[in-house]
User: What shape does this take?
Amino acid sequence: MKAFVTGVSGQLGHDVMNELHRRGIEGTGSDIQPAYGGADDGTPVTHMPYVQMDITDREQVREILFRLKPDYMVHCAAWTAVDRAEECPDACRKVNALGTENIAECCGELGIPMMYFSTDYVFDGHGTRPWEPEDERHPLGVYGATKAEGELAVLRHVKDSYILRIAWVFGTNGHNFIRTMLKLAETHDTLRVVCDQIGTPTYTLDLARLVVDMMGEKRYGIYHVTNEGDYISWYDFTKAIFEEAGIDGINVIPVTSEEYGAKAVRPYNSRMNRSKLTENGFTPLPDWRDALRRFLAAINGRE
Assistant: This one.
């Protein structure tokens, strides 16, 4: 099997490439920059071919994919700056909707199975019931709307596709909430953290393992994939981060989303029902607390 992975300079794409290499699966990575030398922390991506590709350039996408003809597409590239999306809606849509459609069109014409990563932001975040994969999309802002458009493009063009909705993503390659909290703890003794947005995080290392597992199967569809464990708030997550990192003396103050005042509206309810994974024979991701411990060990050089 030959896999093609977009967005390899990001958290998920980097881990997917390394997981493919670990299992001896041929893969080609791509991103918008001319070359990719490895992770932000200096960890190189395992030696695999790399192709520069701008997913918003339809002709470039077609030339590359029709020339390489991969057996599988793993589309990790995305605009993920939620607040910035509100300021630059056209640019965000160009990446998340148009870019995804460019890839999906080629996959449909070539008969390539495709995996697309979506988000809890396709829902409006109301209520307390966990969202089901089949629930109707009602995005609140630009980011969620463009990811929903990407979902529809994949469903429209690709017969064999996985759509994995993920949330609160963290990985060793790139910026994320955990790194931000650890950095702030170096200079602050008091932090205000949102307490009324509820969900569960997703460790890209665990997700990458599931992704490669799924590539070998044909149980296509829409899945909700985050780490297992109790639903938590960002406030709860912050407390757990400091506890697991052994950081004392930080006063974490719970605040509402309204008090915090972010530019983009976030879903209050990001609970997602993950049971479809086990119902279809896939192994769920480990508990988020275990994932947090392993992530901290990895960034501190203990793994």
